């Protein structure tokens, strides 16, 4: 099988390494089959898509809606690299699944409106599949409504005509969308389990996702419901596109 790639942007080693471990666990891939590139530390390679099965994008600290003057040099570089990559991915309808930060990169590339009107605190939310989502192969076998981990300062408030809405939540209208037949993005985190999100809560406690005195409340919020369905999407993606 040709390898998949995980494009990551987390600068902190503990959550970055755990993110990779979670993608390995829930995709069922080996390290040789899932090549990680840490974009915060090195430029994105020029990929030959003919030599890959598909691309995953993990979450990260960058916000697409931040003013240009507030973006670091690393963020501006990463955004330019994603723009070039997505030009080819979208043109070829190449298998792509971006989670959290991935929805911002794909959304920005397609001209979506991204702002802070539909942010969600770190928590578990009910995600409901649309009629289009119910017939989408990546969501095959998923319940109409399932619990998922979220935590984001920005979100898409308006999709462009090129995108198909696949799932929503009560406070975030765009939880998942598709461009073409094979290019996907989710606002929720399909790779996370409760241990993984607990690690991130501690790692990003001072990043403004919650107040300094809300650590225990945030930890309780992600433990209020068992989250098991979203990770199935990762294995489905591999089974569908591995070649």
Per CATH, the architecture is 3-Layer(aba) Sandwich
Summarize model confidence as the mean pLDDT: 95
The number of helices is 7
Which word captures the global form? Answer: globular
The largest beta-sheet arranges its strands as 2-1-3-4-11-10-9-6-7
How many strands appear in the DSSP assignment?
A: 11
* Fold-level CATH name: Rossmann fold
Poorly predicted ranges = none
Task: Please give the alpha-carbon distance between the first and last residues.
Answer: 5 Å
Strand content: 25-35%
What is the number of domains? 1
- The SS-based structural class is alpha/beta
Strand/helix succession: EHEEHEHEEHEEEEEHHH
Write down the CATH class: Alpha Beta
What does this structure look like?
By secondary structure, this protein is of the alpha/beta class. It has one domain: Class I glutamine amidotransferase (GATase) domain (Rossmann fold). It is 31% helix and 26% strand. The chain is built from 7 helices and 11 strands. It has helices spanning 13-27, 73-92, 101-110, 131-134, 194-203, 215-221, 232-241, and strands at residues 4-8, 34-38, 54-57, 96-99, 113-115, 120-129, 145-152, 155-158, 163-169, 172-179, 183-186. The strands form 2 sheets. A 9-stranded mixed beta sheet has the order 2-1-3-4-11-10-9-6-7, sandwiched between helices. α2 links the parallel β3 (54-57) and β4. α1 packs antiparallel against α5.
Topology diagram in text:
Layout: E1 4-8, H1 13-27, E2 34-38, E3 54-57, H2 73-92, E4 96-99, H3 101-110, E5 113-115, E6 120-129, H4 131-134, E7 145-152, E8 155-158, E9 163-169, E10 172-179, E11 183-186, H5 194-203, H6 215-221, H7 232-241
Parallel strand pairs: 1-2, 1-3, 3-4, 4-11
Antiparallel strand pairs: 5-8, 6-7, 6-9, 9-10, 10-11
């Amino acid at each position: 099988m040709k390898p998949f790639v995980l494009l990551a942007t987390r600068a902190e080693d503990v959550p970055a390494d755990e993110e990779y471990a979670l993608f390995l666990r829930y995709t069922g891939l080996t390290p040789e089959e899932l090549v990680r590139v840490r974009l915060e530390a090195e430029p994105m390679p020029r990929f030959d898509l003919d030599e890959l099965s598909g691309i995953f994008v993990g979450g990260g600290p960058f916000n697409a809606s931040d003013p240009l003057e507030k973006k670091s040099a690393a963020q501006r570089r990463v955004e330019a690299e994603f723009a070039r990559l997505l030009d080819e991915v979208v043109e070829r309808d190449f298998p792509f699944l971006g989670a959290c930060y991935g929805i911002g990169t794909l959304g920005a590339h397609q001209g979506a409106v991204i702002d802070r009107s539909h942010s969600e605190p770190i928590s578990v939310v009910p995600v409901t599949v649309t009629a289009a989502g119910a017939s989408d192969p990546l969501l095959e076998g998923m319940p109409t409504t399932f619990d998922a981990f979220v935590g984001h300062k920005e979100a898409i408030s308006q999709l462009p005509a090129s995108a198909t809405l696949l799932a929503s939540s009560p406070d975030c209208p765009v939880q998942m969308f598709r461009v073409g037949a094979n290019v996907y993005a989710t606002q929720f985190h399909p790779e996370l389990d409760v241990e993984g999100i607990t690690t991130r809560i501690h790692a990003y406690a001072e990043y403004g996702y919650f107040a300094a005195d809300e650590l225990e409340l945030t930890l309780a919020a992600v433990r209020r419901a068992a989250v098991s369905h979203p990770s199935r999407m990762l294995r489905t993606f591999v089974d569908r596109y591995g070649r």
